[in-house]
Amino acid sequence: MWSPSAGMLRVGLAQQGLAIARLPRFGLGLGMGLSLARQAAVQYLPCAADPTPQTAPWRAAVDALAQWLAEQKKPRLQVQVLLAGRFARWQLLPWRAELGSAEELAAYAALCFRQTYGRVAQDWQVLPAALLPGSTAPAAAVDSALMAALEQACGSCGAQLQTVTPYFSAAFDAWRARLKGPALWFGTLEADMLSLGLLQGGQWQALQTQRVAGDWQAPLAALMAHMASACTVPDGAPLYLAGDLEAPFVMSGPPFTWLAPQPLATPTKPGLRLAMGC
């Protein structure tokens, strides 16, 4: 059985299962860690989703993680989790000059989600990005129960949950240096989810997600048209796509640059590559 020593783990958490990569103890910044993970040994743990609607879509994967950590008998593991797009909701936070602390920003972000999604947002934990002066900032919300379950899965085995990062955010940070243009589209394509953002002058103008099932090109074109209707998008703004699968076969739709993940020695299903980089 693949058995890491105490150290750093990156775990890609998707409804289809887990990807677990052991990282070196050095270079633990998120961007560098993604690069280092491509060289790490990876274990894939597919899991069958519970067909009952009462079961949270993340439950089987978190239970598999808890079992895997218990089997390692290696305390003091530091765990970084990358969440598949299925588990995150996004919203852009307009700049508010009166926000003066992280606590005020968190409260502001939570209020924005409640205004958009209603009472269901009370059960979410918001992970806001830094709100730079004069700029919009993306914020992600995940189920509070998911965060608690991850804490429990790690804590019960003596491991520490270090970070929880949505895949879209990790992919953008990993590929940021490759994105060129005063205005551009950046998106992530997963097995069942498309996430797309529009940047102009270094600021986010729009950010939305769309569930997909097989065909993603028609939903992508429709999503771009919908987002562009609320913004002024310069002609020729490039489109960059990253994903947890091989370069997609394109039949129609807008041209794009595919930011291909590192090829893997062991083939795996889409959704189980999240720990390996973007």
Architecture blueprint of SSEs:
Elements: E1 8-14, E2 17-23, H1 30-37, E3 42-46, H2 59-72, E4 78-83, E5 89-93, H3 102-117, E6 124-128, E7 137-143, H4 144-155, E8 160-166, H5 167-175, E9 183-189, E10 193-200, E11 203-211, H6 217-228, E12 239-243, E13 257-259
Parallel strand pairs: 1-4, 4-8, 9-12, 12-13
Antiparallel strand pairs: 1-2, 2-3, 5-7, 6-7, 9-10, 10-11
Helix pairs in contact: 2-4
Describe the structure.
The structure is a single chain. The model is unreliable at 1-5 and 26-38 (pLDDT under 50). It is globular, with a radius of gyration of 19 Å. It has a five-stranded mixed beta sheet with strand order 3-2-1-4-8, with helices on both faces. 26% of the residues lie in helices and 29% in strands. It has three domains: 8-86 and 142-169, Nucleotidyltransferase, domain 5 (2-Layer Sandwich), CATH 3.30.420; 88-140; 179-276, Nucleotidyltransferase, domain 5. It has helices spanning 30-37, 59-72, 102-117, 144-155, 167-175, 217-228; strands at residues 8-14, 17-23, 42-46, 78-83, 89-93, 124-128, 137-143, 160-166, 183-189, 193-200, 203-211, 239-243, 257-259. It starts with 7 loop residues before the first strand and ends in a 19-residue tail after the last strand. The protein has 278 residues and is of the alpha/beta class. Helix 2 runs parallel beside helix 4 (144-155). It contains six helices and 13 strands. The longest helix has 16 residues, at 102-117.
